[in-house]
Design a protein that fits this description.
The protein is an alpha+beta fold and 178 residues long. 36% of the residues lie in helices and 21% in strands. It has six helices and five strands, in the order E-H-H-E-E-E-H-E-H-H-H. Strands 1-2-3-4-5 form a five-stranded mixed beta sheet. The longest helix is centred in the middle third of the chain and has 15 residues.
Length: 178
């Protein structure tokens, strides 16, 4: 079985959204995705993209994807790479697709001079935890993820919270784990 990894193009936006929705179903948040094709096109394929994406194909069929972006470590004084999503369709699991995607993301991190590749995994996702452990991943259990969104974000920003803004925030910021 041949596995090919390639950079996503703007023509892949519908496929990227399909992968995102499939991941949300797997992560038990099927209704949490509010992203649209227009959002993904704007944010990933304009002049200064906010994210980058790899598509995995097995025998020319879409098998999975990895979506990542760059962050920055002030302590190291170097950029890092953050893997937002890694997903392999169930029919392609166990065939090396996830490993190939993760290896390509790691190669990009090294090529760009990033000393770190980071991501999150849900604590109940034992297959992923086992997979990442086998790759040599280090789990940072002493660190807690922190998020502020919706009305709380608007309030912190010093903006008035009104019902129209609250509705927009609810649409843009799902309450699920992502």
């Amino acid at each position: 079985m041949a596995i090919a990894i390639r950079a996503a193009t703007s023509a892949d936006v519908p496929l990227i959204l399909e992968f995102i929705r499939a991941l949300a179903v797997y992560e038990r948040e099927p209704d949490a995705v509010t992203a649209t094709e227009a959002d993904l096109l704007r944010d990933g394929f304009e002049t200064n993209p906010f994210y980058f994406c790899l598509i995995a194909e097995s025998n020319d069929a879409p098998a999975g994807f990895a979506l990542y972006f760059f962050n920055y470590s002030t302590w190291l004084g170097r950029p890092g790479l953050y893997l937002e999503d890694l997903f392999v369709h169930p029919g392609f699991r166990g065939l090396g697709v996830g490993r190939a995607l993760l290896q390509q993301v790691a190669a990009i991190a090294v090529e760009k001079g990033c000393p770190r590749l980071q991501w999150e995994v849900l604590d109940w996702n034992k297959p992923a935890i086992d997979f990442y452990t086998a790759m040599g991943a280090e789990f940072l259990d002493e660190w807690r993820n922190v998020r502020i969104s919706g009305d709380a974000l608007r309030k912190l920003a010093g903006l008035e919270v009104n019902s129209e803004a609250a509705m927009d925030s609810a649409r843009l910021m799902p309450k699920g784990p992502k």
